[in-house]
Amino acid sequence: MANMAILKSVFLALGLSAILSAAQNNQNYPYLNGTTIHQPRRGVEELTYPRYVELLDGTILVTASHGTFGQPSSQAAAVAAAYFPVFASSDGGASWDWISNITDQVNGWGMGAQPALMELTEPIGEYAEGTILAAGNSWSENGTHIDVYASMDKGSSWEFVSNVAKGNAPNTTNGAHPIWEPYLMLYDHQLICYYSDQRDPLHGQKLAHQVTTDAKSWGPVVNDVAYPTYSDRPGMTIITQLPDTTWILVHEYPGGYTLGLANYPVFYHIAPTPLDFITDPGRPIIANGFQPSSSPYVVWSSCGGPNGTIVVSDADHSGVFINTMLGDETGWRYKVTEARPAYSRALAVWRNQPKKLATISGAMYGDGETNRSRPLSLWVEDLEGLVRQNPPPEGRTPIQIYYSQLDRDGA
Ligand SMILES: *[C@@H]1O[C@H](CO)[C@@H](O)[C@H](O)[C@H]1NC(C)=O
Ligand SMILES: *[C@@H]1O[C@H](CO)[C@@H](O)[C@H](O)[C@H]1NC(C)=O
Ligand SMILES: *[C@@H]1O[C@H](CO)[C@@H](O)[C@H](O)[C@H]1NC(C)=O
Ligand SMILES: *[C@@H]1O[C@H](CO)[C@@H](O)[C@H](O)[C@H]1NC(C)=O
Ligand SMILES: *[C@@H]1O[C@H](CO)[C@@H](O)[C@H](O)[C@H]1NC(C)=O
Ligand SMILES: *[C@@H]1O[C@H](CO)[C@@H](O)[C@H](O)[C@H]1NC(C)=O
After folding, report:
1. How far apart are CA 391 and CA 371, in angstroms?
2. pLDDT at 262
C-alpha cells in the first residue's frame, strides 16, 4: 500500500496517470448501462447463465452457456453447439473481444450448460498462480459430468484437468440422479467445487461440495444444504465471504417458504467456514414486501456502511436485494436498478471498486420457446446510490407476515 502511494505521487508528478491506472487494475472502471458483451445470432442461438472472473491483471473474462433453438439436426450438431464462449475486456467492460471457446475434450457430449470461472491466486498441484479454471456440466442422454478445464494463457486456450463428479442424464424429476451447477472457489489452499446433487436417495436434490489439493483427485461428497423433506430441491449454490470472517451461501429453494411472491424462493446460510454450511438451517430473503426467486447470485462490497453491503440478485427482478447488517434477517431491502432481469444473471464488485455494482445478464428462462436472442449485457451502477435509495413502494405482502408465521409455527 505504502509503495503504491509513493508510486502514485511519482506517476502523478510525471503525468502518467494512465500507466498508473493500468498498474492498479483499471482504477477507473466505467459506469455502464447495458453495454453489449456479445449479441448472439438472432432467432438462432442464446447465451444464458453468465459467469465471469476478474484476473489479477485487471482483465475481465465472461462466459455463458450457449444454446441453439429447435432440435439439432444430428448428435454432432448438438455437440458442436454445446460450448462456453469466452469474452475478454481490458477496459473495465467497456469493450469486448471473443477470445476462445471452452469445449468438451473428453466425453464427446459438448459442454451443455452451467459454467463457472475462477483464477488461481496461489498454485494448486501442477497449476501455477494465474491459471484460470473453468467448470461446467458436460451432459448427454448418457450422463451429467462436472468437468474442470484450465487455461495457462489468460483464457486463450483450454485443457482438460479433471472430472469432479458424474451423475445420470439430465432430468429434474426427483428420483432421477443427475448433478448440476458447479461453483468453484479457493479456500484454505484447497480448491472446492460446489454443485447440486440428485443422487442421494434421502434428498430429491441437495447441495454438496468436494475438495481437492491438486485439482485432479477430488475428496468425498460433503453436504452443504440438505433439507429433511425428500421433495425439497435446494439448487444453484453461490458463495461469498463476509467481513466478519463468515461466509454466505445463497440458493434457490422450490419447496421453501414463500409469501406467494416466489416460486423458487431464495434462501441463505451463513457459516464460519465455507466447508460447513450444513450447520446453519438457512432462512429466506424477505425484503420490504419483495422476495427474490430463482437462480440467485451474491456478492459483498465494503461500501455502504461499517458492515459493507451484501447484494443478492435473482431471475425475476430487475433490482437487487441488499443487506447492510451482515445478513441479519430484518436487514434485507429491495433496490431498483437499471439491469435486465435474466436467468442466473451474475453480480460482480470489481477489485478496488467497492462503490460499483456490476450485473451481467443473458437470456431469460423460456426465451428458447420464442426464439428470442437477447444480448449478453453488462451494467455497472452506483452501489452507494443504491444503498441510499429510498425503498420502492412495498410489494404485495409485508415482511411481518413471514415473521408472525414463524412465531406461530415455532420454527
Ligand atoms: C439506461 O438505459 C435504459 C434503456 O436504454 C434507459 O431507459 C435509462 O434511462 C438509462 N439509464 C441511465 C442512467 O442512463
Ligand atoms: C467459437 O465457436 C463458434 C461455433 O463453432 C465459432 O463460430 C467461433 O468462431 C468460435 N470462437 C472462437 C474465438 O474460437
Ligand atoms: C449413449 O450410449 C449409447 C450406448 O452406449 C450410445 O449408443 C449412444 O451413442 C450414447 N450417446 C451419446 C450422446 O454419447
Ligand atoms: C426422469 O426421472 C424420472 C424419475 O426417475 C423417471 O420416471 C423419468 O422416466 C425420467 N425421464 C426421462 C425422460 O428419462
Ligand atoms: C452491522 O451489523 C450488525 C449485525 O447484524 C448490526 O447489529 C448493526 O446494526 C449493523 N450496523 C449497521 C450500521 O447497519
Ligand atoms: C423457433 O425456430 C425454430 C427453428 O429453429 C422453428 O421451428 C420454430 O417454429 C420457431 N418458434 C417460434 C415460436 O418462432
Report:
1. 35
2. 84
Ligand nearest to the CA of 143: 3
115: part of which helix (H) or strand (E)? strand 113-119
Q: Is 177 close to ligand 4, i.e. is its CB under 6 Å away?
A: no
Nearest to 345 by CA among 354, 355, 327, 357: 357
Q: What is the pLDDT of residue 395?
A: 52
Query: For residue 397, what pLDDT is reported?
Result: 41
Is the C-beta atom of 33 inside 6 A of ligand 1?
yes
Q: Alpha-carbon distance 15 to 63, whole Å?
A: 36
Mutate to test the pocket of ligand 1, among 32, 33, 318, 340 (most ligand atoms within 8 A of CB): 33
Which residue out of 244, 270, 307 has the highest number of ligand 5 atoms within 8 Å of its CB and is therefore the one to mutate?
A: 307
Q: Nearest 5°: CA angle at 323, between 357 and 409? A: 140
What is the per-residue pLDDT for 67? 95
Helix, strand or coil for residue 356? Answer: strand
Q: Which ligand is nearest to the CA of 171?
A: 4
Mind listing the pLDDT tens digit for each residue in 272-285?
999 999 999 999 99
Q: For ligand 6, what atom is nearest to the CA of residue 68? A: 5
- Full strand arrangement of the beta sheet holding 283-284: 235-241, 247-252, 266-271, 283-284
Handedness of CA 19, 23, 24, 29 (dihedral sign): positive
- Per the CB < 8 A criterion, the answer to whether 207 and 228 are in contact is no
pLDDT at residue 366, rounded to an integer: 87
List of the chain residues with pLDDT < 50? 1-26, 396-411
Is any ligand 4 atom within 6 A of the Cβ of residue 173?
A: yes
Instruction: Using the mean position of ligand 6's atoms as its centre, give its distance from the Cα of residue 67 in Å.
Output: 14
Nearest Cα residue to 100 out of 140, 48, 152: 152
Residue identifier of the C-alpha nearest atom 9 of ligand 1: 338
Atom of ligand 1 minimally distant from the CA of 33 = 1
Q: What is the DSSP string of 191-259?
A: EEEEEEE---TT-SSEEEEEEESSSSS----EEEE--SSTT---EEEEEEE-TTS-EEEEEE-TTS---
> Residue with the nearest Cα to atom 6 of ligand 5?
325
Distance in Å, CA 402 to ligand 2 centroid: 49
Residue 207, Cα to own-chain centre: how many angstroms?
15
Buried b (16+ CB within 10 A) or exposed e, 24-50: bbbbebeebeebebbebeeeebbbbbb
